[in-house]
Design goal:
The chain is of the alpha+beta class. The protein is built from 13 helices and 19 strands. Strand 8 and strand 9 form a beta hairpin.
């Protein structure tokens, strides 16, 4: 069918919010043909159904903050932009529950919830990140230690399958257990299983007081000892973050939240555990931020809590061996991020990733490359070994048998 007729049909599906794609709409270097911006679940269903009829491969775009994460898609015929799918559908303040559309930015959602003294206890280092994007890439920040990840906070989701059929999972009450928990399956799937249109989350009250206690240490072992002492204590931190720059001392920061009296008492105990800690009511500049830019080689590393010192030492050894700077930063809960400068030679980046994966068994973790310049992508496996790959492929075939949604973006070419 001629392209102008396809564009006309897309426009009819979403109230004329469709256009021909330009260079800025490329996904990880893969050019797109069309962009459509549905404003409801129904319009999203119509757009995806039309894409199925016209055999268009679909990539979903929210704020675009992580659009280059994961493997490059095999094709991106249609970019489905969720910018019009924004806003709060329902905020049941008395039940501590909110339903938000997928294109809602986290900042906008938090501002709405703050009016009722509530929050979605989720952090993101990426301004402009949307609800749908956070779910698709499973982003969580420092406070995952206390509150869990977005997977733990989500209690319901509405999404559109690859054939355009609308599906729902969970509900809008915290204890709802009806049906399959597709929310957990969609989390971290990079848009390969369905197009998320809205989600329900459980909320928490905004804490009246926050305190950050920071201490510098010289070695990874010292950082592990400090982290261990806090984690074994009764101070109940909201976050314990570690920052290991390419060289020099490491920094450990503990976040305490709660009432003024409670935080004051816990601060005294935490200071005793940390030693000469610096206490402030503002986060350090690095706290909750990724140690990489949009153009760098970005990695996500997981570890057992007890394995954190071994991960940090493995990173320092790999960087020293290959003579490149490698910054590592993240949560003592077991998820940290690492960044190599964009100018790193592809073979050097591949060697460092290989070294880190070889050491991962010593700290019970994994290494995933989130994003990298095109020359680096070409010489390494972005995902590494992943258990359960056959099951993932069967699930993809069940929900998207035509492999229409974000084809190839996930592990194993899913």
């Amino acid at each position: 069918m001629p392209s102008d007729l396809v564009l006309d049909e897309l426009g009819k599906s979403c109230d004329q919010r469709a256009r021909v794609a330009d260079d800025d709409d490329a996904v990880a270097g893969v050019p797109a043909r069309y962009v459509a911006s549905p404003a409801s679940t129904e319009e999203t269903s119509d757009v995806v159904r039309l894409a199925a009829e016209r055999d268009l491969k679909v990539v979903v775009r929210g704020g675009g903050t992580t659009l280059d994460w994961g493997s490059a898609p095999m094709a991106a015929d249609l970019v489905l932009d969720t910018g019009q799918l924004a806003g709060v559908v329902e905020h049941a303040a008395g039940d501590l529950v909110v339903i938000a559309r997928a294109g809602t930015t986290l900042e906008a959602l938090q501002a709405t919830l703050a009016e009722a003294g509530q929050q979605l206890a989720l952090d993101t280092p990426l301004p402009g990140a949307t609800v749908g994007g956070l779910i698709a890439t499973n982003i969580s920040g420092p406070r995952r230690l206390l509150y869990g990840t977005i997977r733990d906070l989500m209690i319901g989701v509405t999404f559109v399958r690859g054939d355009g059929v609308v599906a729902k999972s969970g509900g809008k009450v915290v204890k709802n257990v009806a049906g399959y928990d597709f929310g957990k399956l969609l989390t971290g799937s990079y848009g390969t299983l369905g197009v998320i249109t809205q989600a329900a989350f459980r909320l928490h009250p905004l804490p009246p007081v926050s305190r950050y206690l920071t201490v510098e240490v010289e070695t990874a072992d010292e950082a592990g000892a400090v982290v261990g002492s806090v984690m074994r204590s009764q101070v109940v931190p909201s976050a314990v973050e570690v920052d290991q720059p390419p060289e020099g001392p490491l920094t450990v920061t503990v976040l305490l939240e709660g009432t003024a009296e409670g935080v004051a008492g816990r601060s005294r105990v935490t200071t005793g555990l940390l030693g000469e800690a610096v206490e402030t009511d503002r986060a350090p500049e690095w706290f909750g931020r990724y140690p990489f830019s949009d153009t760098d080689v970005a990695m996500k590393l997981t570890t057992e809590i007890a394995g954190l010192p071994r991960l940090l030492m493995a990173a320092r050894k790999a960087a020293s061996r290959h003579r490149v700077p490698l910054a590592v930063r993240g949560s003592a809960a077991g998820v940290v991020y690492a960044g190599l400068p964009s100018a790193v030679q592809p073979e050097v980046a591949a060697a460092i990733v290989s070294d880190l994966r070889a050491a991962a068994s010593s700290y019970g973790g994994s290494v995933v490359v989130l994003s990298a310049p095109a020359p680096v992508r070409e010489v390494l496996d972005m995902w590494g070994p992943v258990p359960g790959l056959d099951l993932m492929r069967r699930l993809k075939h069940e929900l998207d048998p035509a492999h229409r949604l974000s084809p190839g973006r996930f592990v194993g070419g899913i």
